[in-house]
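dumping the sequnces here before i forget
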Amino acid sequence: AQTVTQSQPEMSVQEAETVTLSCTYDTSESDYYLFWYKQPPSRQMILVIRQEAYKQQNATENRFSVNFQKAAKSFSLKISDSQLGDAAMYFCAFNGGSQGNLIFGKGTKLSVKP
Amino acid sequence: SQTIHQWPATLVQPVGSPLSLECTVEGTSNPNLYWYRQAAGRGLQLLFYSVGIGQISSEVPQNLSASRPQDRQFILSSKKLLLSDSGFYLCALERTINYGYTFGSGTRLTVV
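..and the predicted 3d for all of it:
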């Protein structure tokens, strides 16, 4: 069974600095998709970034980028130039190519200090 | 564009009472729909998913049930709530296969 592990329950970053959130996963599939979701205090889940496993190039969305290491089954999220609005829970999620269900990690709570 | 509506936003119910949470979608037809529960300090747990009218798959045996009476409507129900049913419930729409989900705004359920 696929699993997603986020080993950092909480992280903190100074405004304008860079922070990296860790995520590892376990799967026997070769074709799959990985996601990072943001859940601010409003609790609305927002898709931050998506990575296709067959693409070696790391996905980037403005200040958000990932470091995808397929062999190590690692998918970390880097937030550059952190802003106060980045404070939220961040969830890593896995979607196997053969199934539609998203499997989520337990989340990392990110605080941003002014 | 695809939108998803979920209500109510907050609900306080006594133990043993029934439950009905509704989720409706717009801007798409025949979507895959999901119900997740998020307990305090934990990740999202998949409860049910549906690939079409009347088609429900349950991931976790429990006190809850789901129904899909119409293509764009997904309902989460319980005949008798338990204290352990408290949590934050999220409905999700699969935008396109393998492109992630769009989530509703969620329902915070407190069973007292």
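Chain B touches chain A at residues 32, 34, 36, 41-44, 46, 49, 51, 59, 88, 90, 92, 94, 97-103, 105-106, 108 (CB under 8 Å).
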